User: What shape does this take?
Amino acid sequence: MKPEAIPEAKPVKASRITLSQLMQPEHANLRGDVHGGWIMKLADEAGALAAMRHAQCRVVTVAIDQMRFHQPIRIGDLVTLKAEVTYVGRTSMETRVQVIAEDPITGRQTHTNTAYLVYVALDDQRRPRPVPRLVPETEEEIRRMEAGAHRQAYRLAQREGDPQEAVP
Ligand SMILES: CC(C)(COP(=O)(O)OP(=O)(O)OC[C@H]1O[C@@H](n2cnc3c(N)ncnc32)[C@H](O)[C@@H]1OP(=O)(O)O)[C@@H](O)C(=O)NCCC(=O)NCCS
Assistant: This one.
């Protein structure tokens, strides 16, 4: 079997994406507040796009860190999600997704939450495959990468203690 080629290293900025969507009545409850689950879906899409940009192959979500919403998002708000890869392992990629809601009439922007989601790159047989090394270029990117390594170690430690992992 041919040995798997080691992908070239890539900068954080190569993974960066922005996704915007206008919040409509179907995204909200009867009082006009957008469902948290809808924002989670958008965050997963944005994170997956950033991971795909980095790995240039299909990816699956393996973990989503807890999400806390600081401010409500309302029907009529323009929601923008900014995502980038913050840390990579051998086959996994952590992404950071920032969610910003804007009232298009007043222009007022609110940072509603930041989420961390982890993806695994897959080959054609759905097996995890190696991803390019991540090259941080700024102090902020270095800091985020170090924090990402700590978060990933914590996730994996939690996985060890998760009784569901033992379910056949
Ligand atoms: C993701 C999946 C391919 C991983 O398979 P696996 O047998 O656990 O593979 P591995 O143990 O080799 O893990 C692959 C990578 O995921 C990471 N990983 C596994 N579990 C993790 C967790 N709970 N949190 C963070 N990373 C995790 C591993 O550390 C490894 O990364 P690394 O190569 O960078 O070290 C498999 O679990 C899967 O297909 N899950 C379903 C994914 C899916 O369908 N998501 C959408 C939900 S509907």
In short: Residues 60-63, 89-92, 118, 120, 128, 155-156, 159 surround coenzyme A (CB under 6 Å). The chain is about 25% helix and 30% strand. Residues 43 and 97 are 6 Å apart (CA to CA). The chain has one domain: 10-161.
